[in-house]
Amino acid sequence: MTPMAQVRSLCVYCGSSSRGRETHKVAAMRLGKMMARAGIRLIFGGGQVGLMGITAQAALSAGGQVTGIIPKFLDEIEVGLKGCTELIITPDMHSRKEKMAEMADGFVVLPGGLGTLDETFEILTWKQLHLHDKPVVIVDLDGYWRPLTELVDNIIAENYARPENRSLFRVVDSVEEVFPALEAEPPFTTVVKTGRM
Question: Which residues are CB-neighbours of 7 under 8 A, at least 6 positions away?
């Protein structure tokens, strides 16, 4: 089975802010539609705001399946997207991230803030520790993630990570390159093991 054939769901990490670049919003919309047309379920943070909401609404409007996963305290302040195919409410942020990782066959990172960085580094750390081997694709729209990749390169240069850690993720410049990047990944298992499971 090819890696892309294994991908039935993708977790998209991205910003909850609506103040980002218009090009990022357009890309989020394109990714949501692409996933729907390919029959790939979107797994996301459940919010109706920012790039999260744009990606989910685009997938839904194109007939796609969307699973939102949101902690109870955020859902209570009406941040959750009620039109999801499925909305899972978790007790806390940690449970949310664990559930997102469990349900996804791969991970795509769009521009975002501290929360997106947190999610990205955690899923990369789990991969480094062999808790999963699912593909991670970072979409470097407009060079947004260049400082992140430079930071990783510096960490490796300073001997705080091994050179092979640079292969924990792929970097592409557009959402159109996401599926080819996934296709280029080796086959993977779908088991995610965390210290809490």
Answer: 40, 105, 106, 135, 182
**pTM (two decimals):** 0.93
Lowest mean pLDDT across 29-33, 106-110, 181-185 = 181-185
For 92-138, the pLDDT digits (tens) are 999 999 999 999 999 999 999 999 999 999 999 999 999 999 999 99
Q: Concatenated DSSP letters for the chain?
A: --HHHH-SEEEEE----S-S-HHHHHHHHHHHHHHHHTTPEEEE--BSSHHHHHHHHHHHHTT--EEEEEEHHHHHTT-B-TTSSEEEEESSHHHHHHHHHHH-S-EEE-S--HHHHHHHHHHHHHHHTTS----EEEE-GGGTTHHHHHHHHHHHHTTSS-GGGGGGSEEESSGGGHHHHHHTSPP-------TT-
Ordered domains of the chain (ranges, CATH): 3-183 (3.40.50.450)
pLDDT for the residue 67: 97
Distance CA 37, CA 62 (A): 7
What is the average pLDDT score of the chain?
92
